[in-house]
Write the structure tokens for this entry.
Amino acid sequence: MEFTFTDEQRMIAETARAFFSENATSARTRAAMEGEGIDRALWRDFCQELGFSAISIAEDVGGAGLGLVELAILAEAAGAHVAALPMLGSLMLAAQAIAAGGSKVQREAWLPALLSGETIAAFVEDAGLEVRDGKLTGGSGFVAHGALAELFVVTDGSGAWLVRRDAAGVSVSAQTTMDQTRPLAEVRFDGAAAEALADPAEALAAANRAALVGLAAEALGGAQASLDRTVEYARERVQFGRPIGSFQAYKHRLADMMVEIEQARSAVYWAACAVDEGSEEAPLALHAAKSFAADTAFRCAADMIQLHGGIGFTWEHDTHLFFKRARSIQTLLGKGDWHREQVAAMILGEAA
Amino acid sequence: MKLGFSQADEHFRQECADWLNGQMAGEFRDIKGITKLTGSPERRKEWEKQLAAHRWSCIGWPEQWGGRDATLAQQVIFAEEYARAGVPGRVNHIGIELAGPTILTFGTEEQKQRFLPGIAAGETIFCQGFSEPNAGSDLAGVRTKGRLEDGEWVVNGQKIWTSLAHISDWIFVVTRTEEGSQGPRGLTFLMMPIDQPGIEIRGIRQINGDAEFNETFFTDARCPADSYIGTVGEGWKIAMGLLAFERGVSTLGQQMGFRNELDEIIAAAKANGAAGDPLIRQRLAKAEIGLRLMRYGALRMLSNTDHSRMDGAALTYKIQWATWRRSLGELAMDVLGQAGEVTPHQDYEWDTLPNLFLFSRADTIYGGTNQIQRNLIAERGLGLPREPRWTA
């Protein structure tokens, strides 16, 4: 039995943890929140100095050839600091889609710039997208980091296209967003020139797998950080002459958080491993990981606010960063109920 | 990081499955599928001997004592295949998984010679005498007294929740041998033969109507002076070491039983139309996800080669499975509807799903209640201040 990190994976985890705790500080994240919702220097270092952007991209298309377990390790570390990075749109969705379903020309045209971080891409879903003569009309009001993207990967659920930000008929406007570390934008196409990805099914499947694992891992990191920070507070804060962490009512809530988090950890790495090994459990594992980890992150962040008392409700404290990020993860890429309904259909033998 | 077992382990799995399925289709087909601890005790004692005859009774023990020196992975695989084949639980579970390992670790050479061959052969059945009416979660509150008299230990007091005591040959008993001692001090771990005038066993009827547990009364019960394990007065150490053996290997086998229960609920939901209810569907999915996460939590726990360290998955496992199974019992009743409220039997006796609903209330109590588990997680896992307790 080897359901545990290899030495190499442990090293990646240590490097990533050190990188984010040193650099993705509260001050820098808050500066990003006041600005465009991205810490550009952090993104440059993540992509170029550490080469983390290439980690789960195949070697033959210029990546490091590692799997979703390694991607999950990075996303978990990023989530633990609510890092303001376009990992979801640019890497987990767009780069994965292009790497898996792009033609050689498309890969060569976009992957180097996406992996170096020089170009940011975003993912646009519109089930009612109109496609006429290779031009797209439609869009979405909720495109993560869409305001900064120079490239859009667009899908109606079955087809997949590339659209440049500077093409005619593309309009983008930033939205004031509850989670300021991953702001949404309204992206509209009005007969915008598009280039179809060579293999849209492969592109969308790869993006879906990576993004579900990545979001679940990010949620896990956020949940664990919520617990760790609350434990620290429980030891320091004294009321009634005792550290509040010595009260059973308080301890038991923290214990419950840990019980949830340990399950979320199993879920994330099970799903990542199942995809990497091509296991037939992978589809179920992806639904399980996304729904379970997202709910865990929300519950832990909400408990972090409650267990911090008044200070936890202030803008000054970082509790709300985790709380808002967790809420947005719950909605992104399918709500928990939707994922559980997919699981129900599978186990009841109704799945198509 | 890998999900599965090695190829050699998978070969071993096949070997286990072939033998177990052969037995359950052949000579022992009459005991296949028994889930209650109390069903067919005589045949199940014969089954213990059959396991021993084919060297499957204690595969994790050293070869010298009848085991196979099986690796952790092999032990897990055997436990999984055992449950998958529908073989009933071991009536000598306490002997194989608790008493044996305790004697192997803390016993003298003479004690090993005296006890291990009988346990391995399925001839000596053990039960455990820890809890007392006033020593439940607080195990150090033991009051049963032991004193040395004419070269024998003489024991007086009462134990409770001694499962299978009525079919056992031996009981290990934690006794207070130091007059006036308190808490974990002054306790001694004794091995006593059950068949003697000083020991009386009475069944305890549970909320499901069954009686798997007992009260065991000691009135001048006796055993030879050399029947203690470890050191006189330091039985607490042995008791704590013994509880550590209880975790781990059997968990994946236990999960196969859970799998069967959930499958039965899914089948019932499809049959009676409950599967069309969106809320039931959500709960079925949650139960399925919870079971899968239990499996991967257990694999994380068992992949961790340093077993002295209580990692997160191990520390949270008890409360996780117990709470999951208790919810599963509630889901079973919501799926069954009123059909779950009546039994086809004349006696107050329940089929699998209503019995799951009733019995699972015990899961969050025995082996450390959920409340005690939360204390342990908070203190050992999160380093929070400890609850007041006996000062050793």
